[in-house]
Amino acid sequence: MAYATVNPYTGKTLKTFPTATLEEVDAALETAHAAFGVWKNEPIEERTFILDKAASLLEAERNEYAEMLTTEMGKIMSEAQAEVSVCVAILRYYVEHTKDLLRPRMLLTQGFGETDVHLVNDPTGIIFAVEPWNFPYYQVIRVAAPQLAAGNVVMLKHASNVPQCAALMERLFLEAGAPKGVFTNLYLPHDLTEHVIASPYVRGVALTGSEKAGAIIASLAGKHLKKSTLELGGMDAFIVLDDADIQLAAEWAVRGRNRNAGQVCVSSKRFIVVDAVYDEFVRRYRAEAAKLVPGDPADPKTTLAPLSSATAKQQVERQVADIVAQGAKIEYLVDVPKEGNFFPSALLTDIPEGSEATRTEIFGPVAQLYRAKDEADAIRIANDCPYGLGGSVFTSDIHHAQEIARQLDTGMVTINRASASGPDIPFGGVKNSGYGHELIDLGLKEFLNQKVVING
Ligand code: NAP
């Protein structure tokens, strides 16, 4: 695990970075702790003034920031620009709302006067953020904007394949005027992770990534009695009922499965279609997927990106081979360039019920299709999954869809569209997709001390 920029389209290693030494990590922890001592006492307006400045800088340099996403993880340019824009919107959300959201709350109690008991939100210290490469800025900003607004400071350990995006995040906050140590990027080797988590200055651990990394980091957090939040993988179900607009469903399905080359936690991954419309859905999915244009992610005509690394491509190839060995059929829907880490958009059908395949998150543009007998069967298949991140329901009856949404064992459900996210919509899953929330007041308060103050 060396920190390096390797262009996923050309395969060229463009830059490498040495990992931090123990001494550098300790120095960074001291600096961040000292910064926290000042930052926590700044008025909210001062802190959000810096977030506002960061939003303006990001907006003004949108293309420069977007280009680095394309260079380091192969994101197509339009999606890269959209990622920068949503980061700007999240920063501005907290500029506008933090003061209101952190307002002390008076509690009406039995034993004290009406204004005697109140709940205040106090910052706690360094929040250690371990983040993945698939949305190199968005994932970081989802944690950094609320935490910095609330008075905590952030120490980032980013994925090893996006070191320049990580450095740009640190530069952004420094240029916006945040004192050194308020936001720190560390090229942390795995073997120093526990050292950081164990530091008494670190008061929370936020990880976004795989189940495997989540379990490791959460155990370390538990061992050192630090609160953690986990945003992990998903196998989002995309249910299509017989009264759905099948063309609309097919268009969203292809978009939901192939965006960011399928490397999205809330990608639609399992398409569960009732028998009556299954064949029509498959035909339309094929037709829509055939319109995808794989190619140079910097070329505006490209709509299917390469995978983020050679290892990611090998992993998808291995997973598909395993699923086919278990009896499923694979169908490739587009031709992809020989160079670059491309994996074609594909359909997996005839997946044996209960097989390991039904529990495997594929981080690539491969759709798993399931034929459901009827609606109840579709809901059963959707919930028969270790993950519980998002999900979608397609039907012309919105009220009925809302009832189905309540039956899905996931943190998020969309109706008649693939996943939706926004600066003012919370994000989080259940089951093996993790715990805790990011965004709005839920994310803002995850690592605060909600302290009770009682007048005697
Ligand atoms: P990953 O391998 O778990 O990596 C995520 C982060 O954890 C990286 O910074 C990685 O650093 C670090 N990490 C992994 N093992 C570690 C260890 N033993 N000690 C310290 N740090 C460690 O995940 P990924 O493959 O990059 O990302 C894809 C996964 O993230 C998918 O499962 C996806 O669904 C999930 N995801 C979830 C959400 C959500 O919000 N729920 C959002 C995006 C992605 P290195 O690069 O140095 O290994």
Give a structural overview.
It is a single chain. The protein is 41% helix and 19% strand. It has 14 helices and 20 strands. The strands form five sheets. A seven-stranded mixed beta sheet has the order 12-13-14-11-10-16-17, with helices on both faces. Helix 6 links the parallel strand 6 and strand 7. The N and C termini lie far apart (56 Å). NADP nicotinamide-adenine-dinucleotide phosphate binds next to helix 8.
Number of helices: 14
CATH homologous superfamily classification of the largest domain: Aldehyde Dehydrogenase, Chain A, domain 1
Q: Order of strands in the sheet with the most strands?
A: 12-13-14-11-10-16-17
Helix content: 40-55%
Notable characteristics:
20 strands, 456 residues, globular, 6-stranded mixed β-sheet, single chain, Aldehyde Dehydrogenase, Chain A, domain 1, Aldehyde Dehydrogenase, Chain A, domain 2, Succinate-semialdehyde dehydrogenase, alpha/beta
